[in-house]
Design a protein that fits this description.
The structure holds 2 protein chains of 2 kinds.
Chain A (H helix, E strand, L loop, with lengths): L1 H22 L3 H29 L30 H14 L1 H4 L2 E6 L2 E6 L2 H19 L1 H4 L5 H10 L11 H19 L1 H6 L2 H22 L7 H12 L11 H16 L7 H4 L30 H14 L9
Antiparallel strand pairs in A: 1-2
Helix pairs in contact in A: 1-2, 1-10, 1-12, 2-12, 5-8, 8-10, 10-12
Chain B lengths: L6 H5 L28 H7 L20 H15 L1 H9 L11 H6 L6 H16 L1 H6 L10 H10 L8 H5 L6 H14 L5 H13 L7 H19 L14 E4 L3 H4 L3 H15 L3 E3 L15 H18 L3 E4 L4 H8 L1 H5 L25 E3 H10 L15 E3 L3 H5 L5 H10 L30 H7 L1 H14 L3 E4 L2 H14 L4 E4 H8 L25
Parallel strand pairs in B: 1-2, 1-3, 3-4, 5-6, 6-7
Helix pairs in contact in B: 2-11, 3-4, 3-10, 6-10, 12-14, 14-24, 18-20, 20-24, 22-23
Classes of the chains: A mainly alpha, B mainly alpha.
């Protein structure tokens, strides 16, 4: 069910743009108003969420220690997996964010023939990392629409991406890999009974949304019947970027679908699980040093509590203590 | 083993989820998979809300009339107090990497034991009540109504989590189900829903200082029995002191080691070790428990119980504190104590009186682990050891969850174990060190009535032991946690018979050549050491 709802939602949105921008000619709304609104929602929403998290304190140091602690001089501590310095934490976070280190550890447990076996399982890591890096590359590549002159690194990235020189226009490897990775992530969710069981509409929707963005982009770039006028697209993009928006005539409707789905992704972002982009930086099990016995940390809400003091304890048991030759503060 | 079926039956566990949607909170209270409720008297001792007689199988759990409001307010308060909770509620992408990492899921196949879904049991309520999208879209956004059935489901599943943090290791965002379990158990405690094995122990710790409820004279008496045993097996009479002012070091162990087999052999080990090196230490009857059952109750209760350690160290005027072999005790001492009950500025940075080593890694808490202390002693050649006495043992090492994933202690115990025992074999790599498997009964899930689930939850640990048992004839599972010492023996009996369980210091003491000892043909358990006759 969840998967059909999400697919229909994305198809419905595309149809909506086809009607609005294609048939009714409301290009200004789809080309200017909605993108601006989406960016605004994204920026404000993202900031609010991060500030909301940051407002809650981290009362205790709770890193998950995945390596040897710093203790005796002759025992080699694990500086990254059990970091005890700021640089160690930076290293751990960098490996987490850039290389998906925790996911790289993934294993699979199976009971076969009365034995429990564990195998390495790096497919999710591979699918995840390919998806994220190709998506990032594609976003950076799109800067060519928003900049004049186009910065060197964007040009360089583009030529590397089209390195294989296949077809005309040149096929970007990232386009192919992104779609493949998205399909893998989708099929993985559908094929495994356990994953299907835990998946919510909120898990399928972003997959279909990004798939929709990717496919609409691919269609207008590579398929003649969906071709759009790139010069006009650049005029529109530059207009948006310089806060001087104009809507040139004659950009194909596929572009508006592409732009609208991306706008929806931006607007949806702060309210969804996609916020893991911001949250991963704030995760207390990863971004804290394992130094809680070395350095004192203060809990801002550390409130006094009622304790059973030694005096009361001795009052409760004094006679028995004296009888057992245990020292007491006050004689009976 | 009344409730647990035969091992072959448990092995037929299916990991395919049922047809029923997980959003339906109704649970089937399978006998042997849930604990008896906290007794009213225990709640009264601790001053916790809603003391009453009730039973989980009853329709009516006698919740306070405004229970919904209490839970709502409680969750709100905790979202403001813990960034971990807030972030973990928001960023899970349900990638499923954690799913088959939980020993309870592997063992039971119950999909609500997948860490992602366990967290979702709370997250769905959070979404419905605390997020705009959830308020508007409800179930479509993954939100659920908070009903009494949800409370019953929480009771069931959040007492099927041992807070071992194995899932957190694999999560790409470090989402720690232990944090979520801690919070849900706190919420449940606000309306008087809890289990007696935790609440009774916490109440005992509060009143008498230890979880067994041993009063001071009995506590001392128990240790005197151990002193008698040492005299019999080793030939030396020890005189440990209690509540002695001016001692250099306060020693605190989990009280399970004072009372229960095989922990008592570890305690005998502590006493022999201290005698061997002539340590100036004392034992407190007031702070007579290292384990902290408050951690499984609420942050406040944890703080109240933990406060005794610093208070007693201050009263006795010791220089620093030495802690025994225990799991969650060390999670609290390592990650919480200084923050909750410090600064311990009346103490000195721990310095070994024998080796002069200064323990800079504990310069703020002023408390070190006995294994750190022993590793340093052995490294400096301060112990006279005859590892041959342990030749009849073929050992493997169980990294207890809390000292591994909560503290990062991996090498010290291996160094000590290899120094006192010639036969050591590691279990398969995906089951040890940071990837270690829980015994299946941590966080106070050690109750007899919970045995069925414990045998399922302990299955991954047991299978790794069985592997080295078959491959290397391993016959001793060594660990550094008192709950392990209580929980692993029945687990081994069930899955890997003939493997016995012990703490590390027991083996150290076994190998210790004490001044004035007589011939030692037996180990600390009074059992003959095979092959040692006339060897020394």
């Amino acid at each position: 069910m969840a998967v059909w709802y999400s697919l229909l939602l994305v198809l419905g949105m595309s149809l909506f743009v086809y009607l609005g921008a294609g048939l009714l000619g409301l290009q200004a709304i789809f080309g200017i108003v909605i993108p601006y609104a989406a960016i605004l929602v994204f920026l404000i929403g993202f900031t609010m969420r991060v500030l909301g998290w940051a407002k809650s304190p981290v009362p205790f140091r709770i890193p998950t220690t995945a390596g040897q602690q710093k203790s005796l001089d002759w025992i080699k501590p694990s500086t990254v997996d059990s970091p005890y310095t700021t640089w160690g934490v930076v290293g751990r976070m960098a490996m987490e964010i850039l290389l998906f280190r925790s996911l790289f550890r993934n294993t699979k447990a199976e009971i076969t023939e009365g034995k429990l076996a564990y195998g390495s399982n790096k497919w999710l890591w591979l699918g995840g990392i390919l998806f994220h890096y190709t998506f990032l590359t594609i976003v950076i590549r799109h800067l060519r629409f928003f900049t004049e002159p186009v910065p060197y690194f964007v040009q360089a990235l583009e030529s590397i991406d089209g390195m294989l020189q296949i077809g005309s226009p040149v096929i970007y490897q990232t386009d192919v890999i992104l779609v493949a990775a998205l399909l893998f992530l989708l099929v993985r969710r559908l094929a495994s009974p356990q994953l299907r069981y835990i998946s919510l509409p909120a898990d399928y929707f972003p997959l279909f949304l990004i798939l929709g963005i990717a496919l609409s982009g691919i269609m207008m770039r590579y398929f003649a019947i969906f071709k759009v006028d790139l010069m006009s697209v650049k005029v529109l993009a530059m207009g948006l970027a310089t806060f001087n928006p104009t809507v040139p005539e004659g950009i194909g409707v596929m572009f508006y679908i592409h732009l609208f789905l991306f706008s929806m992704l931006l607007a949806y972002f702060p309210f969804s699980k996609l916020m893991h982009l911001g949250g991963v930086f704030l995760s207390p099990t990863r971004n804290l040093p394992n130094d809680s016995r070395m350095v004192r940390h203060v809990n801002p809400w550390n409130a006094p509590v009622k304790v059973h003091s030694y005096e009361h304890y001795e009052d409760d048991f004094r006679e028995k203590m004296i009888e057992a030759d245990l020292p007491v503060e006050k004689q009976a | 083993m009344s409730q647990a079926p035969k091992p072959e039956e448990l092995l037929r566990v299916s990991h395919i989820p049922p047809k029923k949607d997980w959003m339906d909170p109704r649970v089937d209270l399978v006998p042997g998979t849930w604990g008896y409720p906290g007794k009213a008297s225990s709640l009264e001792t601790l001053g916790l809300p809603n003391p009453r007689d009730w039973n989980p199988t009853d329709e009516d759990w006698k919740l306070p009339p405004n229970w919904k409001e209490i839970i709502h307010e409680g969750l709100k308060e905790r979202l403001e107090k813990y960034r971990s909770l807030k972030v973990f509620m928001d960023i899970c992408v349900r990638c499923g990497a954690c799913a088959d990492k939980c020993h309870f899921f592997i063992g039971s196949g119950d999909p609500k034991n997948m860490p992602v879904l366990r967290a979702e049991l709370l997250r769905s309520i959070y979404r419905k009540d605390f997020t705009t999208v959830g308020r508007i879209l409800g179930a479509f956004a993954g939100g659920r109504e908070l009903t009494e059935d949800v409370i019953k489901e929480w009771f069931y599943y959040f007492h099927q989590c041992t807070e071992c943090r194995r899932c957190s290791l694999y999560c790409p965002y470090g989402i720690d189900t232990a944090e979520i379990t801690i919070v849900v158990r706190e919420l449940l405690n606000l309306i008087g829903v809890n289990i007696d094995w935790i609440l009774g122990a916490a109440a005992n710790c509060y009143r008498t200082g230890n979880h067994l409820g041993l009063e001071p004279h009995t506590f001392k008496g128990n240790i005197d029995f151990l002193v008698d045993d040492i005299e019999e097996y080793v030939g030396i009479r020890l005189n440990p002191t209690f509540n002695r002012k001016g001692a250099e070091i306060l020693f605190i162990a989990p009280s399970g080691d004072v009372f229960a087999d095989p922990g008592i052999f570890t305690y005998m080990g502590y006493l022999m070790l201290f005698e061997h090196i002539g340590l100036d230490y004392t034992i407190s009857t007031y702070a007579s428990e290292g384990g902290n059952f408050g951690l499984f109750t609420s942050q406040e209760t944890m703080k109240r119980l933990n406060s005794k350690m610093y208070a007693e160290a201050k009263r006795l005027g010791v220089k620093w504190i030495l802690g025994g072999e225990c799991g969650h005790m060390w999670r609290v001492l390592h990650q919480y104590m200084d923050t909750m009950n410090g600064p311990a500025d009346f103490l000195e940075v721990p310095k070994s009186p024998l080796t002069g080593t200064v323990f800079d890694n504990a310069k703020s808490t002023k408390m070190i682990h006995i294994v750190e202390f022993m590793a340093d002693l052995i490294h400096h050649g301060k112990l006279k050891l005859n590892p041959k006495r342990n030749d009849y043992l073929r050992t493997t090492w169980h990294d207890s969850c809390n000292v591994s994933r909560g503290m990062g202690m991996f090498e010290e115990p291996r160094y000590v174990l290899k120094s006192v025992c010639n036969n050591f074999f590691e279990m398969p790599e995906n089951t040890i060190r940071e990837q270690t498997f829980c015994c299946g009964g941590g966080t106070g899930l050690n109750a007899g009535e919970f045995e069925y689930l414990r045998m399922m939850g302990g299955m991954p640990r047991a299978f790794a032991v069985k592997h080295v048992q078959e491959k290397h004839d391993v016959n001793r599972l060594v660990n550094v946690c008192a709950l392990d010492r209580a929980i692993l023996p029945p687990l081994m009996d069930y899955w890997a018979p003939e493997v016995s369980v012990s703490g590390l210091t027991e083996l150290v003491a076994n190998a210790l050549i004490m001044e004035g000892e007589h011939d030692r043909p037996t180990d600390l358990r009074g059992e003959d050491i095979p092959g040692l006759e006339g060897d020394e």
